[in-house]
Design a protein that fits this description.
With about 325 residues, the protein is an alpha/beta fold. The chain has two domains: about 180 residues, Rossmann fold; about 100 residues, Cytochrome-c3 hydrogenase, C-terminal domain (Cytochrome-c3 Hydrogenase, Chain A, domain 2, Irregular). Helices cover about 25% and strands about 15% of the residues. It has a five-stranded parallel β-sheet. Strand 9 and strand 10 form a beta hairpin. Helix 1 crosses helix 6. The protein binds iron/sulfur cluster (2 copies). The site of one iron/sulfur cluster has 12 residues, from loops.
Length: about 325
Amino acid sequence: MANLLWLQGGACSGNTMSFLNAEEPTVVELVTDFGINILWHPSIGLEIGQQVSDLLNDILAGKVQLDILVFEGSLVQGPNGTGTMNYFADRPMIDWIRELSAVTQYNVAIGDCATWGGIPAVPPNPSESTGMQFHKKVKGGFLGENYVSKGGLPVINIPGCPAHPDWVTQILVAISTGRIKDVLIDDYHRPKTFFTDFVQTGCPNVRNFIQKEDGGFGKRGGCLFYEVGCRGPMTRASCNNILWNRHSSKTRANHPCLGCTEPGFPHNDLKKGSVLKTMKYLGVWPKEVPAGESKLMYYFKAGVGKVSPSNKTLLEASK
Ligand code: SF4
Ligand code: SF4
């Protein structure tokens, strides 16, 4: 059995909503089949007020073992590092998190706000928000770069806005069944199982990407990279392999990938003209190119794709 405590900081509850929709396994199966005992959760916990403070104090006093601390939302440190903008159970939430992080076996950050600060940390960041162990791409965040939990691991990051529910429940199962040390994590502490391939892997628009056929919102038969800022080729996530609702993904519905599993999210700090739009040099050349590719090589390949006859053109010509 593994005792799990879920707390929220500067959060919209989106990751909780996502978590409750998990299918493989479901939240109920976490409890009935995988021995996870949810000590408390802000949306489904039955305890209120003093009962919650008592539980937290019992954990800190060693009367209740904490195996998994899950945190959703940013660590709100304002004003001036006091954390009093986000009070919880009579104390700044950051004080609880600092102390609970010292006693938990494993520490899991869910969603972009908890992993790297997310939207609340966009400058000027009035709430002084940060992530558990990263601030955007820089390691450190609230707990510091050298933090490891009692179980010997740094904070395990499951990013996303929100994180896919099955990414969350499968990592919780790995912890509760004693297999978490077999799960490799990348430089940003993301489990490689879910965050190695790019979103583009499995996207039905890849042929259009290669042949440089432009698409648009909700429009079938085009790639969203060239005009509407799709970040599928530079975002590591399994959204086109482990589908959302077992059914679809943003790019399958012809909505651009926003790159929500990368520590730069929201990219360009929501600068005007940068959202759902491809940033370009001289209005022609994309400023960001697929990961691992040099700009010159990408521009060359895109140029060749543009002037080569596409499947659509060949099909029309053959009629
Ligand atoms: S850029 Fe986006 S829409 Fe185009 S193929 Fe890649 S993931 Fe699909
Ligand atoms: S498709 Fe992109 S923006 Fe959408 S959930 Fe996946 S990584 Fe995030």
